[in-house]
## 1
Amino acid sequence: FFCFGVIALLSAAFYFRLARENLIRNYESYAISMASMLNDTVMKEFVAPKVSAGVPIDVEANPAQYEELSAVLRKHLERFPVRKIKIYDPAGKIIYSDDRSLVGIANPENEKFRKALAGRITSFLLLHQMGGDTGTETLSADLLEVYVPVGGEGSSAVTGVFEVYLDVTLL
């Protein structure tokens, strides 16, 4: 009977790990689709009108542009389980974050960012018991942190990176 218990325990651990990996893959696909949609939306509803009008874009220095971009993103994110979002330029500078205090901060040494800039999707499951980015903040949910490379319309070149935190608590 002891052997059956051990086998059952090992099987449960194996299937739990398999289910977790499947969940992460599914949410990565979800994040890729969402980042692609957001990239297209930002280009069409925020960037293109400014470029057409000859208006320079500087979300960091222009509070009105920050608020306008935030409104565009909020409008399209309200139906998604997104807790946090950041957009990086190719140099690793945060050009948009839902936490305005992070805009303008550069961290090109961020390994997850560098992998995404090289065209690879990177994700990490953050359990609310683990803490957040710095390890000092308390998370109120289980989050999947996903770095997604994005490019210009019709281009395969990576022109930026979306960092998205998806709430996976209920799963």
## 2
Amino acid sequence: VLHLHDILQPRAKERAMVRSLISRGVRVAAVSDAARASLLALGVDETKVIRIHNGLDPGQWRPRPGRDQSIVVKEQGEIRREPSTPAVAVLFLTLGQQAPWKGIHVFLAAARRVVKRHRNAHFWVVGSPYRGGVAYQARLARLAAEFPADDRVTFLGRRQDINAVLAEADA
């Protein structure tokens, strides 16, 4: 079983790799409809592909004690101090590989609209850039620089403490 976390491009290299695996009877578990569609576009028989979304184990993730489940201003937690997020802020989070097809630019465009209405909103981008994503990283940096205060968007990079980071977020 091949577990596909990304969208494959319709290039000869990807087509050859997928055909080789499928010819050996390999089945593919794709984490999204888009990943599944990219395999089908490469000619993979749909009976060989199943979609299994990534998820969180609710037994491992716990909101910070005393946290209101709605989007509210809350006090600073330990993780928030790392990137110097203000003590009182509404914190929005996106988590995933920084690639154009993941829509981080859409998150930042929406964030600019949110900031106009909520002056205490801050935004964390968690995840590492995809290989060869220098141009996209530059685009994201430009978008972040357009905010009224340059500390509204923080790129945290790849993290191992995802449960703790999620517990800090308001949305």
